[in-house]
């Protein structure tokens, strides 16, 4: 297969590319691409348009302000999901790299550079006229199809087939064991702390595959806002806290926004010591190969007497 110069503008795509065996052809990355470790030496092609420091609420307000300003500057007939982005593309860096392929996504304007921004940069400034591969992962199957799409674009379909066979086999082995369990504890997956948000898209599927009963969010739909009263009313057996883009250490910083509430101590999960902090940034938020590890993490937490994959302390910790 021909050698190519590939730029990835989303962390999950970088992981997909490396899992397919294209690390040596990656020439550029987004500011969030950090796995595998070797990609950190690659030139950075993006940056956020807002200050990423501060509390969950402060970050949320900044993101919404950027989106508001962006939306007011585009024509109303343009779909906001493809027109807006909270990240900036370095067109000059792309021009210097002269990529033949750019991989991005059109799923979430808060997760990566928008497809529209990439197309504008390419059409105006990048003379190599690279092929653009855009992923739109809303469900687990979408993610697997995205892997196929990347493999096909790089003329490596067989590699895609082999990768997917391995990933699906691991999930099938786990979910088959889960089906024999009589217990399916109720699980609330928290994707943002302030304002409160539950997990949507592929997260409900992951919880169910790991043997839990997901109580908020629907598979294939965007993550829903959630009130503390709703959380208290549902009173799930297990609460998982994995703010989007946060590792465990960073997530802990904002935990008092929840745990300081008087009602927090009355929740069943809090009373029974079944609240867990997860590394959302490295696992659950990235729609790529490591979602299999994410399912394993969930299985360890939901059915601790049945599964021991060794992710505790790395992918998750008890509050």
Would you kindly provide a written description of the structure presented here, covering whatever features stand out?
The chain has 2 domains: 6-136, Rossmann fold (3-Layer(aba) Sandwich); 183-311, 3-Layer(aba) Sandwich (Rossmann fold). With 319 residues, it is of the alpha/beta class. The protein starts with 5 loop residues before the first strand and ends with a strand. The protein has helices at residues 11-19, 56-72, 80-83, 91-97, 115-125, 140-153, 157-178, 203-209, 228-234, 248-254, 256-259, 268-271, 280-284, 291-302; strands at 6-8, 26-28, 46-48, 87-89, 101-105, 131-135, 186-192, 197-198, 213-214, 238-241, 275-278, 316-318. Strands 7, 8, 9, 10, 11 and 12 form a 6-stranded mixed β-sheet that branches. A 4-stranded parallel β-sheet has the order 2-1-5-6, sandwiched between helices. It has a two-stranded antiparallel ribbon with strand order 3-4. The chain has 14 helices and 12 strands.
List keywords for this structure.
319 residues; alpha/beta; Rossmann fold; six-stranded mixed beta sheet; four-stranded parallel beta sheet
User: Helix fraction?
Assistant: 40-55%
Strand fraction band? Answer: 5-15%
Number of strands: 12
Structural category is alpha/beta
Instruction: List the uncertain runs.
Output: 71-83
Cα-based radius of gyration, to the nearest Å: 20 Å
Distance between the termini: 49 Å
Subunit arrangement of the protein: single chain
Counted by DSSP, the helix tally is 14
User: Structurally, how many domains make up the residues?
Assistant: 2
State mean pLDDT (0 to 100 scale). Answer: 88
Reported CATH architecture of the largest domain: 3-Layer(aba) Sandwich
Write the CATH fold name of the largest domain.
Rossmann fold
What composes the largest sheet? 6 strands, mixed
CATH class of the largest domain: Alpha Beta
């Amino acid at each position: 297969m021909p050698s190519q110069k590939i730029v990835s503008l989303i962390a999950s795509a970088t992981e997909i590319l490396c899992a397919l065996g294209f690390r040596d052809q990656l020439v550029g990355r987004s500011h969030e691409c950090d796995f595998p470790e070797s990609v950190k030496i690659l030139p950075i092609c993006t940056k956020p348009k807002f200050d990423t420091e501060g509390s969950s609420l402060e970050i949320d307000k900044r993101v919404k302000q950027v989106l508001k300003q962006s939306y007011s500057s585009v024509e109303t007939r343009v779909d906001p999901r493809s027109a807006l982005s909270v990240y900036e593309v370095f067109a000059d860096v792309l021009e210097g790299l002269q990529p033949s392929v750019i991989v991005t996504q059109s799923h979430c304007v808060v997760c990566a550079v928008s497809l529209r921004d990439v197309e504008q940069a390419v059409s105006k400034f990048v003379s190599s006229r690279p092929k653009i591969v855009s992923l739109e992962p809303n469900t687990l199957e979408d993610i697997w199809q995205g892997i196929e799409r990347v493999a096909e674009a790089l003329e490596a379909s067989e590699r895609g087939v082999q990768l997917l066979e391995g990933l699906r086999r691991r999930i099938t082995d786990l979910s088959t064991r889960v089906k024999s369990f009589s217990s399916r504890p109720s699980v609330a997956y928290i994707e943002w702390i302030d304002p409160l948000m539950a997990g949507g898209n592929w997260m409900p599927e992951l919880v169910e595959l790991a043997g839990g009963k997901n109580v908020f969010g629907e598979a294939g739909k965007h993550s829903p806002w959630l009130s503390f009263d709703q959380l208290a009313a549902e009173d799930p057996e297990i609460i998982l806290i994995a703010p989007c883009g946060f590792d465990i250490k960073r997530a802990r910083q904002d935990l008092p926004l929840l745990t300081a509430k008087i009602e927090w101590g009355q929740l069943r999960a809090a009373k029974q010591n079944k609240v867990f902090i997860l590394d959302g940034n490295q696992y659950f938020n990235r729609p790529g190969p490591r979602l299999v590890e994410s399912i394993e993490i969930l299985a360890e937490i939901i059915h601790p007497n049945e599964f021991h994959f060794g992710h505790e302390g790395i992918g998750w910790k008890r509050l």
